Amino acid sequence: MKKKLLSALLSVAMVASLLVGCGAKTEAPAATEEATTEAPAEEAAPAEDVTISVAAIETAYGADMWAKVAEAFTAETGIKVELTTDKNLEDVIGPSMQGGEYPDVIHLATGREAALTEQFIKGNLIADITDVLSMTVPGEDAVVSDKIAGGFTDTSLTNPYGDGKTYLAPMFYSPCGLFYNAGLLEEKGWAVPTTWDEMWELGDKAAAEGIALFTYPTTGYFDAFLYALMYSVGGPEFFNAATNYEEGIWDTAEAKTCFDIIAKLATYTNPITPAQANDQDFTQNQQLVLDNKAIFMPNGTWIVGEMAEAPRAEGFKWGMTALPAVTAGGAGYSYTWFEQAWIPSGAENIDAAKQFVAFLYSDVACEIFAAAGAIQPVLGIADKLEGDNVMFYSIYDNGAKAAMGNFAAYESVAGLGSVREVFLDPVNSLVEGNMTQEAWVESIKEASDLMRANLK
Questions:
Q1: What homologous superfamily does CATH list for 2-174+338-390?
Q2: Is 402 helix (H, G, I), strand (E, B) or coil?
């Protein structure tokens, strides 16, 4: 096991630095059913003087909330917490993990450039935490599964192997969509597009006034965009087939529609975007929207805090919309991104670590997180929000449908890149005109054949 862990981590060490400042990006607050359990699981009492190590990525929400939650957990359980937070968390905890020392709990989402969490998933190096759902929340009478909104523990983002077990705990969720300056549209008398045909019409109007229709922080932000687009084009059936790399899926009419929309959108994108679409300069692309140099950008609700101190055009106010429908009367979709917390299978204090994960859904922890703008996927949380968050977290109450899920995990194969490298990074080349749509699609087909052949 240790050799397997070291192998996976050594490969991570060679990956480029991460996407700083982005909370992530994955699920729907509109729950249909609450998870149920027959009886609470027996929780192992931690040994006296147990100290667990918790490593959490510092994002726009800040690090202070984690210190407060750790303090509250210790006050409730007596279990001490040694906390590590950093914007470059992968770089900080990587060296010690290569030496065989692992944090007991790691809060680090999938979809990051360094792909550390994906490496652990691919290597089967994450502990099964299904029993946490049956645990009583420390300090409360409620069971964890009764607090988490339905659907959040039934997705490939928490159950990556499709074996009915949960390995990653759903954390801060954020509806994703297209963010824009509502003040600009009001000033110009432009309506928010409800279909892609209306989107192209708006793009032409904006171009006539020297304003680009679109920009994006980095290509990584196209994950939520692509997922919502697949739902919009072909519903959950197409989405599930595509994210499992079904043979022939990229030759379907639905796939062609997705590719056509993204390729056309590339021609409406502010041309400076690719040069700034990196971990150091991505906020400059976001600034394009605040400066009225681009109308829409894909993003999540963390954008408000992330750009709170940035200058902006007079009359600026945040707006957010789902992706337009493909046809008039069709459904627009908004993907909900959520972060994940998990326990390495090589952690020393797994029982105590599970108690900490359970505590993350306590009323105490949720209130601490919410005060920093980090919203836990627990039932009734939206009723406690105010300001811009009321608009953001009510997007599903205003006609948009929720998209959720992720590409299926596959074994590491020599020469096969990550989902981001295959599906998303080429968007930069589409915008720059260095790659044709046909070449992009062909590369996706070739990679999908390998992904399908190496599914976990």
A1: Periplasmic binding protein-like II (3.40.190.10)
A2: strand
